[in-house]
Amino acid sequence: MPRQPSEDQHPIDDVDRLLVRMLEQDGRASNAQLARAAGIAESTCSIRVRLLRERGVVRGIHADIDPAAVGRPVEAMVAVRFGGHVRSHIERFTDDVPRLPGVANLHHVSGTNDFFVHVACRSAHDLRDFVLDHLTSRPGVLHAETSLIFTSRRGTHPMTDRAD
User: Fold this and answer.
1) Residue 156: strand, helix, or coil
2) What is the pLDDT of the chain when averaged over all its residues?
3) Whether residue 142 sits in one domain with residue 96
4) Boundaries of domain holding 120
5) Tell me: the pLDDT tens digits for 25-73?
6) CATH number for the domain harbouring residue 112
7) Which of 10, 29, 138, 158 is a good FRET partner for 59, with 20 to 30 A between their CA atoms?
8) Domain total for the chain?
9) Does pTM top 0.70 for this prediction?
């Protein structure tokens, strides 16, 4: 699991920001392309990209797969609420659930619910079984509420735009 950026890390500079933006746009960009666009040597670029990964700024490069195209047309967001909040239950859930087949994302959140699990299944029947077999049967889970996802759109605005 990549390290999470901490508050004591130095903010990324303009060159790093450009490299991250380019990787956001095309995760398959070669080191030579990245270096040329940033105006730096390829060896320097390679080191900077490696450090961005090690620092947790770049957490990974992923293919965006259509679940329906690979036999998982039923998507849902499952809100999971724990009772008692036993650390070992939360940690085990956090470690185990992302490894389950069909899990696209796991979000640990604040508010009434503790987690949101984005899952893609072959059918409504499989979704029901997933929730019962893999979520509500876990120690500490008090409640699960499933919402079907009708459409999804990935955000298009770069994360590298400054917040200020």
Assistant:
1) coil
2) 90
3) yes
4) 72-149
5) 888 999 999 999 999 999 999 999 999 999 999 998 888 889 999 999 9
6) 3.30.70.920
7) 138
8) 2
9) yes
